[in-house]
Amino acid sequence: MLFERGGQDTGVLGTDQLAEGYNRYEPSQWTFLPRALRGERVGPSDVFVDVGCGRGRVVLQAARRPFGRVIGIEISPEKIASARRNVARATSRRKCGDIELVAIDALEYEVPPDTTHIYLYNPCSGDAFRRLLANIVASYDHVPRQLRVLYANPAEEEILERSDRFVRVRTSRGLRHDHRIAVYEVTATRSSAGTGVRAGTSHRTAFGGGAAAPRN
């Protein structure tokens, strides 16, 4: 099973190789990250995570900004190896010297407590997406901070809109519907700030999920 992103079939991977809830491979457009970060001032205290980094395109784009750390996670060993080669070759214009590439299923990944920006290019849907959001919220709850989700081709945007844990900051429409970028900020729980789910509510209930997506 491959965890990358996009939702369009490029001929790289057949649908029979995908677990339920995971979308087919398609690399991000070069314009997506600049649009997602438009107006953002990032610095050494900011940490960027690309969920489903594939061959490292967005990781390299993020590393051209002064993030303190850039992390790419990808379950495909072949693609993470390719990303490592690409990162090793592309040293010019790099402003971030700390790049980490992790071979792991995103649903098993613990979002680092210093993460400030998470990039998603429609990596999964349904219960798999709810579990991914729950991991993000758990990281925020562990260490409350400014944490933004940069969501490209936001096919599951309704889940975020219906949740009290995310507030939309802005939207960039793009030339096509699947080129939209939605930027969300994670918020505190209702019990502490009046904007979240009730204290003690499970993440699965909070995001309206049913059975968990399979772990692979």
The CATH architecture designation is: 3-Layer(aba) Sandwich
- Span between N and C termini? 7 Å
Order of helices and strands, N to C?
Answer: HEHEHEEHEHEEHH
The coarse silhouette is globular
What does this structure look like?
- This protein has a single domain (about 25-205), classed as Rossmann fold.
- The protein is globular and about 45 Å long.
- The chain is built from seven helices and seven strands, in the order αβαβαββαβαββαα.
- It is of the alpha/beta class and about 220 residues long.
- A seven-stranded mixed sheet has the order 3-2-1-4-5-7-6.
- The chain has helices at about 30-35, 55-65, 75-90, 125-140, 155-160, 190-195, 205; strands at about 45-50, 70-75, 100-105, 115-120, 150, 165-170, 180-185.
- Residues about 1-15, about 190-200 and about 210-215 have low confidence and may be disordered.
Sum up the structure in keywords.
216 residues, Rossmann fold, 7 strands, disordered N terminus, disordered C terminus, alpha/beta, globular
Secondary structure elements and pairings:
Elements: H1 32-36, E1 47-51, H2 57-63, E2 69-74, H3 77-89, E3 99-103, E4 117-121, H4 126-142, E5 148-152, H5 157-162, E6 166-172, E7 181-186, H6 190-193, H7 203-206
Parallel strand pairs: 1-2, 1-4, 2-3, 4-5
Antiparallel strand pairs: 5-7, 6-7
How would you concisely characterize the structure shown here?
With 216 residues, the chain is α/β, with parallel strands linked by helices. It has seven helices and seven strands.
